[in-house]
Amino acid sequence: MTEVNKAPHLGDGPPPVGGWTRFVTARPRLSLLVALVLTALAVLAGSGVADRLGSGGWEDPAAESTYATKALEREFPDSQPNLLLLVDSGRASVDDPAVAARARDLTERLATEQGVTGVGSYWQSKSPALRAKDGHEALIAARITGDENAMGKTLDRIAPHYRGTHGPVQVKVGGIVAVRHEMQTIIKDDLTRAEMIALPITLVLLVMIFGSAIAALLPLGIGIVAILGTNAVLRGLTSFTDVSVFALNLTTALGLGLAIDYALFIVRRYREELSAGADPLTAVGTTLRTAGRTVLFSALTVAVSLAAMMVFPQYFLRSFAYAGIAVVLLAAAAALILLPAALLLLGHRVNSLDLRRLFRRTAKPSGAEGTAWARAATLVMRRAPLFALGTTALLVLLGLPFLGVKFGTADDRQLPSGAESHVVQQHIRDDFPGSPGGGLEILAEGGATQTQYADYKQRVAALPEVVRVDGPLVKGDTAYFTVQPKGEAVDSAAQRLVGDLRSLKAPFDTKVTGTAAVLVDSKHAIGERLPWAGAFIAIVTLLLVFLLTGSVLIPLQAVVLNALSLTAMFGAVVWVFQDGHLSGALGFTSTGSIETTLPVLMFCVAFGLSMDYGVFLLSRIKEEYDRTGDHNEAVRHGLQRTGGLITAAAVILAVVMVAIGTSRVTNTKMLGLGIALAVLMDAMVVRSLLVPAIMRLTGRATWWAPAPLRRFHQRFGLSEGEPAAPAKKKEKEPAGV
Asked: Residue 640's closest CA among 373, 286, 252?
């Protein structure tokens, strides 16, 4: 599908891409039959994928905190509870004999359950940390063993027997394992609901765009193929690596969004060729040479942005790379192989079932939309400095709230306020002494005397941010201490305390873990690798856009303007989700921070989608510039031909992302709504206003490249158009510019 970007050839016919056209259209019925069989196999292979996905993955597996956590789980499993039963005695005291008897009975029963260890309770230890301050609630703590899937199955088996009323007490189930399991269940349910919302609305929008119901169904079919194929890929990946359940949301969003984008571009170009008098086979060939190359470039640029997440060690981020790359490549493959076969079989029937004829009297005349975009481009270029400065200032202003971002960790507050595990954790946070979940743990390895342990404990207790130190609990040459910090679990003071503990000298090896330690290590891992991820995205994007355009300036513009288009998204994330504005209307609990990995994820996804639209616009501008040599006319023509298409694609993708954003899990809500805002800002502000204004200001210099790079592009570069005439030497201004 590549074309050598040599000097225009006159009278030689179209470039030699007939081989690819023949390949994808030689046996159209067979191609579609094979696709149907493969899709059916993907349904079988991907069935049950959600049950095999994890709900964690925010920690760095090579970090000190991860090592310490695993060592403590191995050496002191009873000290690492992940299941909590909140026992509510109503108006009675938890020390009431009847309440205590029933609670001890529940504790003893829980200790006999298979897969459960380390069972303890307030009624056994009388620990003040396990008793609410008002004396009406207390905790039973235990540890469920195994990996995430095994823990989920154990919880499903035992929870119904403990949840609910037991004589004088009411029991609710909480703890980390319950939070993660409930999050996984809610995400699966929400994803089904999002699909039920997005699919019919998307179909209606496609009918409005194409008019033809037949043409509208084609993009939807490509999207479904991409989603089902990616589910099968993820199912296979779970056999040898961890994959986050959150990746399913990206699969649905990108599967529908990008497949529809690519199909929109191809079907629109095919219908243009038919309208110009081409027969179906010629129209398919021209479409593959033009829109097909654009789709290929778009898929590569989006895949590059998503692949950058492979740089990070957290499997939460890597999961999105797995899912994103798979769904992008499958969407592009379906659009470039299956869609041409379907178009060839349909021929002129692609325009059948024109539903817009019902509204023909009120419909815009043919070409009205393109004329409006041409007038808009002319206006923007006439006032290019004003639009360039004004738009840039607006985007920077919208991004200012991100300067106050605070990073934190995901916890139970990701769940709806009525979710059982959230209720339990909130009760513990509000009603129990200390800062449950905020304690730090120190793993001590190498052995020591009691005197050495006592001296170390005393020095830890003397640190200014420490409230209390418990321990040590010793097992052979290993011991551990628990440290209760002042303030919140992951505030700046707790994070400073992590550094103080790690720098404190001891006669044995120490490792610090706990919520704040995990956050510190996660921030370090992301900060250390972020420049590499950014450099990877920038360098590969610059190369791909250069291969498409042959310009040095356009790739630089693309990277800078794409990054600028994301400012509104990042500003809104902080203003809404961190600061809590609109939390009531959107139905989430603000934690006062943003989970550390979310901005990285949102940047990679949104940057890739912005490049998707950028490639659509630039390819059409380049096609016209190659044909006429007129820079300003090429910009105007490019916006005229793609402005409506890009806007329609962005609206459809935004609908899908907003459907994802209806999730009851805060991180998923943030992802969906944030990216919906980013793609709309990119399509309606950056592509419509900022790009034409900047390109008008840079003029013909936009297409400059030094001689060695020009020769490189002539040999290896790709072009969407089929140049019909040598580029003109004299610039021609569009009307009014």
From this structure: 373
State how far the Cα of 711 lies from the Cα of 708, in Å rounded to an integer.
5
What are the E-state strand segments in 332-462?
A: 407-408, 440-445
- Residue 730, pLDDT above cutoff 50: no
Which secondary structure element, helix H or strand E, spans residue 483, and what is its range?
strand 478-485
Q: Packing angle between helix 315-333 and helix 213-237, nearest 10 degrees?
A: 140
What does 140-156 look like in DSSP terms, one character per residue?
Answer: EEEEE-SSHHHHHHHHH
* Residues 281 and 92 sit within 8 Å (Cβ to Cβ): no
Domain extents in the chain: 82-174, 182-353+369-409+521-716, 439-513
Who contacts 534 (Cβ-Cβ below 8 Å, separation ≥6)?
A: 308
Contact indicator for 32, 318 with CB cutoff of 8 Å: no
Query: What integer pLDDT is reported at residue 366 of this predicted model?
Result: 44
Of 409, 440, 433, 426, the closest CA to residue 174 belongs to: 426
Q: How many whole angstroms separate alpha carbon 273 and alpha carbon 291? A: 11
| Among 187, 44, 72, 179, CA closest to 512 | 72
Q: Cβ distance 516 to 489 under 8 Å?
A: yes
Whether the domain at 82-174 and the domain at 439-513 fall into the same CATH topology: yes
| Max mean pLDDT range (72-81, 125-134, 688-697) | 688-697
Contact criterion met (CB below 8 Å) for 168 and 92? yes
Question: CATH topology for 182-353+369-409+521-716?
Answer: Multidrug efflux transporter AcrB transmembrane fold (1.20.1640)
Q: Which two three-digit tokens encode residue 611?
A: 């490049």
Query: Model-level pTM?
Result: 0.85
Establish how many alpha carbons lie within 13 A of residue 630's alpha carbon, considering only the half-sphere containing its beta carbon. Answer: 14
DSSP 365: P
Gyration radius from the chain CA atoms: 30
What value does the mean pLDDT take over residues 110-133? 89
CA distance 575 to 568: 10
Domain 439-513 has what CATH class? alpha beta
Sorted by sequence, the CB contacts under 8 Å of residue 196 that are 6+ apart come out as none
Q: Phi, psi at residue 442, to the nearest 5°?
A: -115, 120
User: Is residue 699 classed as helix, strand or coil in its secondary structure?
Assistant: helix
| Rounded CA separation 158/148 (Å) | 16
Q: How far apart are the first and last CA of the chain?
A: 37
User: Is the separation of the CB atoms in 694 and 624 below 8 Å?
Assistant: no
Question: pLDDT tens digits, residue range 170-187?
Answer: 999 998 899 988 988 898
Cα separation values, 249 from 428, 444, 672, 711, Å: 31, 41, 9, 44
Region for residue 291 given its phi and psi (left: phi exceeds 0; alpha: psi -120 to 50; beta: otherwise) = alpha
CATH code 3.30.70.1320 for 82-174: yes
Per-residue confidence band for 727, with pLDDT thresholds at 50, 70 and 90 = very low
**Are the beta carbons of 17 and 285 closer than 8 angstroms?**
yes
Quickly state the pLDDT bin for 390 (edges 50, 70, 90): very high
Residue 438: predicted pLDDT: 62
Phi and psi angles of residue 680, each rounded to the nearest 5 degrees, phi first: -70, -45
Q: Which of 184, 321, 230 is nearest to 46 (CA)?
A: 230
Nearest in space to 327 (alpha carbons), one of 265, 239, 267, 248: 248
Residue 145 has which token pair? 């063993």
- Tell me phi and psi for residue 466, to 5 degrees: -100, 130
Highest mean pLDDT among 13-17, 291-295, 391-395: 391-395
Q: pLDDT confidence of 713, banded at 50, 70, 90?
A: confident
- For 54, list phi and psi in degrees, rounded to 5: -95, 165
- Strand ranges of the sheet holding 440-445, from the earlier edge strand across to the other edge: 466-475, 478-485, 440-445, 509-514
Name the band, by pLDDT with cuts 50, 70 and 90, for residue 350: confident
**Cβ–Cβ < 8 Å for 649, 613:** yes
